[in-house]
Amino acid sequence: xxxxxxAKRRGxxxxxxxxxxPISGFYDYGHVGxxxxxxxxxxxxxxxxxxxxxxxxxxxxxxxxxxxxxxxGHLEHFVDPIVKCRKCGHAMRAxxxxxxxxxxxxxGLPPKxxxxxxxxxxxxxxxxxxxxxxxxxxxxxxPVTAGTGKDARTAYLTPETAQGAYVNxxxxxxxxxxxxxxxxAVVGKAFRNEIAPRNALVRMRExxxxxxxxxxxxxxxxxHPRFADVETARLRLLPxxxxxxxxETTAQDAVASLGLPPFYVYYLARIxxxxxxxxxxxxxxxxxxxxxxxxxAFYNRFHWDIELQLGIGWKEVGGxxxxxxxxxxxxxxxxxxxxxxxxxxxxIPHILEISMGVDRNIYALxxxxxxxxxxxxxxxxxxxxxxxxxxxxxxxxxxxxxxKAREVQAALEQAGFSTFYDSTGSIGRMYRRxxxxxxxxxxxxxxxxxxxxxxxxxxxxxxxxxRVPIARLxxxxxxxxxxxxxxxxxxxxx
Amino acid sequence: xxxxxxAKRRGxxxxxxxxxxPISGFYDYGHVGxxxxxxxxxxxxxxxxxxxxxxxxxxxxxxxxxxxxxxxGHLEHFVDPIVKCRKCGHAMRAxxxxxxxxxxxxxGLPPKxxxxxxxxxxxxxxxxxxxxxxxxxxxxxxPVTAGTGKDARTAYLTPETAQGAYVNxxxxxxxxxxxxxxxxAVVGKAFRNEIAPRNALVRMRExxxxxxxxxxxxxxxxxHPRFADVETARLRLLPxxxxxxxxETTAQDAVASLGLPPFYVYYLARIxxxxxxxxxxxxxxxxxxxxxxxxxAFYNRFHWDIELQLGIGWKEVGGxxxxxxxxxxxxxxxxxxxxxxxxxxxxIPHILEISMGVDRNIYALxxxxxxxxxxxxxxxxxxxxxxxxxxxxxxxxxxxxxxKAREVQAALEQAGFSTFYDSTGSIGRMYRRxxxxxxxxxxxxxxxxxxxxxxxxxxxxxxxxxRVPIARLxxxxxxxxxxxxxxxxxxxxx
Lengths: 494, 494
Known about the structure:
2 copies of one chain form a homodimer.
Chain A: H1 3-10, E1 13-15, E2 27-29, H2 31-49, E3 55-57, E4 63-65, H3 66-72, H4 74-77, E5 79-84, E6 91-93, H5 94-102, H6 111-120, E7 136-139, E8 142-146, E9 153-157, H7 162-166, H8 169-175, E10 182-191, E11 206-216, E12 234-238, E13 247-250, H9 251-258, H10 262-278, E14 286-290, E15 302-310, E16 313-324, H11 326-335, E17 350-357, H12 358-369, E18 370-373, E19 376-379, E20 390-394, H13 401-414, E21 419-421, H14 427-437, E22 441-445, H15 447-452, E23 454-459, E24 465-469, H16 473-481, E25 491-492
Parallel strand pairs in A: 3-10, 12-14, 20-21, 20-22
Antiparallel strand pairs in A: 1-2, 4-9, 5-6, 5-7, 8-9, 10-11, 11-17, 12-13, 14-15, 15-16, 16-17, 18-19, 22-23, 23-24, 24-25
């Protein structure tokens, strides 16, 4: 199935400003994509903010002053190796060109060594085969000027939501009554001037991140008060030393055999729980991959990526980063404001970051849930994540059925369900359309509804149908969304 | 009461990146502000998306190609009159300077006439009293370069969410099965390089808008199928011809006496309903103000501002704009893609825009709801809009009370309430703190709770307390939030 074609046709997402000639790396979400994204974000908030007593969400501005990125290191280190064509001027990621030809990863290789490989393998422009210039490091931030005249200041669109949490650490620590661990989550936009955006929502220039920064006392890293809750969880790990296959390792064993602190492993286990239990994704498509020394950012002591196996291969959709005191120390140094806490023993809190790309996760949901069946295409999203909980269809557009359908819809919305009304086709067409949006349940109002006050409830996956009294519909739908079997929720239709 | 001081101390909002020297016009929301903003947005979505059968939210990118703003007119018309000091280089809004000295509005006056007034009244720099240069029109968009080398494209941070709906009109019209009226809402960021940001969240450079673009057949403007629902509503109007006092006019009469089309008046009435019924703001602080010919953007046939009376005077927090076919015609002209619809009769849909500034509305909520009482400060938000539905306090931090409190909290969260746990002070201090956050209800767990399985429920406004069995707490809280009187929900405490 062409998922991108389906995404566009059914209202999930497509290239931004397409009528004016789109710029690569920018996407707009339609109504169905917006609902799906909002449900994913709500699930993320519920799960991760629930992990700590002092974990809250904040909403910082995305345009931030230059000093922030001097402190964070983005002005110095946030660079991509770019190589331009001498003939046509086309710019490419040097590591991507090398990887596509030599079938090996060259991320992080110094420019001089990339130049040497380009010369050795006589690599030319991917468009016109012209000769290439030397590899240059180009900064990926988007600078902007705020104000005018002598009041003008340089600001940058933040390339990660994390900095918004770091600059607010002191203020929030005061507001939240000086307790550690303190978690500050941001679900918001980030911007990177990628030279080669690709794979639709996977590598974008404007994207949404969901990140949780956990500020903690480094002396407490050797334990987590709730470690017992996860210790027997079997984690799907790909350690740097054993890249050939996933090892199923209990959290307990991961501490012992991989030398990881319990505080870190606790969150690895919770992340896996989020993907496999909360989102309900298939375990064999999920793994946690350790980054080796040269692959990690220099400030990360531990860095495991969250990877999902998609049609385009294993893709990173997030990570767990133990950033030590790098961030707060740098902000202290550049701002001159103390980031130390503690009475008696003073220390700069360390940071554990849970970072996820929301758009990548939305793309992954479509990729992992798409099924092509004999006479229909289905997006078999986990029921609770689907853009709409239920679709409401009148069998025909007359004799009071649309009015009755609207009444049933209003009652479901009132009860907190997200619904979608459709009456623009035969019932078969409306079912197919809903299958392609991934709505788990369809509710049909027919002539019997007017007589007996009941409706047909249809399961997207089994296409099974049962008859449910309107009075019991909210309860039946709730149980169905929670995983209940349709057969137990009403009278089977023959 | 100093609302900005309270906003900072209690976690609502403050200047962004303050530790590094903030740039004016940027604010960060803390945890309480984020919750309040999210509740306002949820109320907005529920209300306005509920007004039409084909009204949905979409999420366009905020960085959009230059062509978009060539079409929208922003590159040409989105300018502020700026005057710089010859001596110190400070830049000011010429109209603001004139207004502050001559106590009159000069918005929209041509630069030459502003120059004449500056000379006539010998106006100098507000900082150093140096002589002023000539007034120049400066564009307020933020340009950004996406890509590099020959692939580089100029993009702009969108100055209004509306354009994201317009460029997606055709695609969404297809997806939503070609029905009019079609409503596309965007709740998202917008960016304007204001020369003189002021009044905290009222005039910002990065801000959030909630806008609904209603695309409709211009021939249907003379009626609205549900006009009967609003015709007797008494609208608080300030017509351009009678600026001295609000006239209470029924929707019916507004059509007749003001020459406004019923389709337009219908939405004026719904907007008033949102502010007075849904948000529960005091009627005397609300008015709808008509803009006169020279005050309106040239493409607006009708333009009424939504105004609230705050401590800083009457402030515009939104508007209802009948933009005719201006937007879609311009996008058609610049993109070369037809925006026409209809079989048989072809036409370009007209647009009615409901536009609100979210941050301004949040600021207004704090301003309108702040009460200073003898021994406490209270943010008396409408109950359903408060950042948290309920606070949970254990009387003391021992003897199993915190555990019991966490249990009660979990049950309330499970039932869909937003809660806040606090145990870091005496009960009196915790009540005061919650009053300042604006939480409508406090739930206290004490020794009797362990014996009788009941809790104390306290009303923020009356400070009245009743005793409620834990089993009935979710229901009591729901009824309380819906406006129920506390006295009827439990046994009074003496």
